[in-house]
Q: What sequence folds into this?
């Protein structure tokens, strides 16, 4: 069991003939992900790692029954690619692309919400259900199947904590990188709801960072609705105000979005907060049973 | 990219938003060619707020005063940024000052209009700001709605909503993150005039905005020399005051590493994210930028290779260590092609400390030595 995706999920890759699309399609296939088609307009009929390329999303969907798209196209083409995926009525669209202008992101998220289609990202590592399905650029090797759900605004930081969990023999149900941009699709609260209802998730790790108030809102939601233990970590305690820390969304502006405010919100909501990444493991150990190492 | 006031006003003027006729000078003596009638206002052109409070806006009545003030203001530092140009405009007789702005509300996931019937310097702390979210496409009624909320009616409502329409056009078509007029004023002779203007163009959109082609370098005045070099080389560098230089991949991991340094009693000297999939050349440039900071005593490299290949990083580290034998390095290099990386680093004295906490503790211990 898992959220959003599993080993049956059929996926198309938009931008499959580009460098990034090609490389990661290879990794995903190797992991066992069912990639059934690729899309590059004008290159229909070619194949990439044995995956057939189509000119349009609609054609690929009709021929293969895919329900999910993973988008690797360059930033200025991402709006068009996402709208095409929505037009073909896919259920979930994962946008890996970094650097999409916010004016385009607003249009993408608005259209997805009008059509009730789920979006993960943009500017994210994607989603992985260990042992079953990898969509995006997560290094599959560091994950293992288990019962901890992870939600994070950052890629490599997710890998760091996932690796620490795996090394401690704590597996993961599904890990969702929601993305580092100011405007994103699924947020903390959407993912918390999914994990809260997933019978195979016993505890949730939430990794936030400076900028915006998504963590504060998540804390409020956890207090009211989430029955499972949640462990949080916030990056950026040493970040100076007014400076963008790599991610477009990671900026303290007008005194809002500080790490202190987020840590306080979680603590006030009764959520355990790890001071350093490795402490996530210690806190998770206190709330779930760890299987003995074989 | 934050535009200077005079640039924002020129762009506003180009779509019919009334702006004062002004002149820009970069050398004090240019004031002798002023084609305006006194009294005039002289304003420092800096990409930061708090200009008025810092003494960056002065009214003068004649050429002698204007020359003295120009000499004083050119070079004036405001929030650490040096003034290199001045905008000179006729003094306006003001009946009323208001504030309008357009920006993105990340939590609402939509653009919003903001307005207040009280414009001026303290606007950020004003509780009088009204907000109209743009939930679909922008339409002129959005502007009228805001004007009404601001307490305007009749002719003034029509004048202000017309300006909001024009400002929104610029906001949408130039990929702006912020378009602001504060103050927007009604003059004593019944006209409306944008007395100040702010525009921030989204950096990710610059490559599709031909109007701003080639503007970037001149608009990075709030960056240090090394931050500027990093930006132009496509690296994210933010400098701080500490002694421990940091190079990581991924924004979240970089921030977490800085926080760990602090947690173990050290002070980070910078944030530097080499990004995903960095190759040897990129890591070399990153090492050079951090090493060039005279405050840096030690460089901590933390790479968790997902799409980044560890052997590429190792090659850069090997060269750097050979060329800079006096530079202390603490390295944690884990993931993709790790075995090859360890092979490359053999005999260089660099060894990856795979446990992140141990690596940071080591860096703090070495970095605190004199």
A:
């Amino acid at each position: 069991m898992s959220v959003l995706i599993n080993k049956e999920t059929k996926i198309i890759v938009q931008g499959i003939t580009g460098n990034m699309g090609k490389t990661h399609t290879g990794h995903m296939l190797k992991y066992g992900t069912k990639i059934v088609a690729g899309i590059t307009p004008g290159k229909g009929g070619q194949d990439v790692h044995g995956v057939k390329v189509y000119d349009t999303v609609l054609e690929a969907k009709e021929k293969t029954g895919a329900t999910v798209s993973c988008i690797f196209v360059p930033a200025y083409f991402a709006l068009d690619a996402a709208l095409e995926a929505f037009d073909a009525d896919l259920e979930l669209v994962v946008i890996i692309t970094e650097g999409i202008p916010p004016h385009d992101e607003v249009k993408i998220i608005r259209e997805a919400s009008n059509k009730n289609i789920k979006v993960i990202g943009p500017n994210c590592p994607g989603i992985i259900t260990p042992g079953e399905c990898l969509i995006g650029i997560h290094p599959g090797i560091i994950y293992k199947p288990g019962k901890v759900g992870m939600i994070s605004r950052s890629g490599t930081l997710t890998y760091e904590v996932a690796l620490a969990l795996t090394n401690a023999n704590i597996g993961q149900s599904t890990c969702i990188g929601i993305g580092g941009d100011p405007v994103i699709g699924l947020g903390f609260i959407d993912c918390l709801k999914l994990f809260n209802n997933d019978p195979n998730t016993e505890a949730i790790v939430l990794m936030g960072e400076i900028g915006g108030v998504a963590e504060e809102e998540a804390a409020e939601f956890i207090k009211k609705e989430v029955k499972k233990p949640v462990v949080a970590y916030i990056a950026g305690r040493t970040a100076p105000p007014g400076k963008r820390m790599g991610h477009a969304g990671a900026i303290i502006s007008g005194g809002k979005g500080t790490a202190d405010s987020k840590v306080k919100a979680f603590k006030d909501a009764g959520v355990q907060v790890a001071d350093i990444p490795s402490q996530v493991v210690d806190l998770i150990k206190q709330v779930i049973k760890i299987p003995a190492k074989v | 990219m934050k535009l200077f006031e005079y640039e924002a006003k020129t762009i506003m003027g180009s779509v019919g938003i009334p702006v004062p006729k002004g002149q820009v000078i970069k050398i004090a003596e240019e004031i002798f060619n002023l084609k305006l009638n006194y009294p005039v206002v002289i304003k420092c052109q800096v990409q930061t707020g708090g200009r008025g409070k810092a003494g960056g806006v002065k009214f003068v009545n004649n050429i002698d005063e204007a020359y003295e003030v120009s000499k004083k203001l050119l070079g004036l530092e405001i929030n650490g940024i040096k003034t290199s140009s001045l905008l000179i405009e006729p003094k306006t007789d003001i009946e009323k000052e208001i504030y309008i702005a357009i920006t993105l509300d990340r939590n609402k996931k939509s653009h919003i209009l903001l307005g207040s019937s009280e414009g001026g310097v303290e606007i950020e702390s004003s509780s009088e700001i009204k907000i109209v979210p743009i939930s679909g496409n922008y339409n002129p009624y959005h502007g009228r709605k805001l004007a009404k909320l601001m307490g305007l009616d009749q002719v003034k409502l029509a004048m202000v909503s017309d300006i909001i329409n024009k400002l929104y056009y610029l906001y949408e078509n130039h990929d702006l993150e912020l378009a602001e007029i504060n103050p927007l004023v009604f003059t004593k002779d019944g006209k409306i005039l944008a007395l100040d203007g702010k525009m921030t163009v989204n950096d990710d959109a610059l490559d599709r905005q031909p109007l701003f082609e080639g503007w970037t370098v001149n608009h990075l005045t709030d960056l240090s020399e090394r931050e500027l070099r990093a930006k132009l080389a496509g690296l994210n560098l933010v400098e701080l005051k500490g002694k421990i230089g940091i190079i990581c991949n991924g924004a979240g991991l970089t921030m977490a590493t800085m926080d760990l340094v602090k947690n173990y009693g050290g002070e980070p000297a910078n944030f530097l994210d080499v990004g995903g999939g960095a190759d040897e050349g990129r890591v070399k440039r990153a090492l050079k930028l951090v090493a060039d900071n005279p405050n840096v005593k030690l460089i901590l490299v933390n790479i968790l290779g997902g799409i980044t290949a560890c052997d590429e990083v190792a090659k850069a580290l090997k060269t750097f260590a050979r060329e800079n034998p006096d530079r202390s390095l603490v390295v944690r290099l884990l993931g993709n092609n790790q075995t090859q990386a360890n092979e490359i680093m053999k005999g260089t004295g660099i060894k990856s400390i795979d446990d992140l906490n141990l690596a940071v503790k080591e860096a703090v211990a070495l970095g605190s030595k004199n």
Residues 102-115 of chain A form the longest helix (14 residues). The first strand of chain A starts at residue 10 and ends at 14.
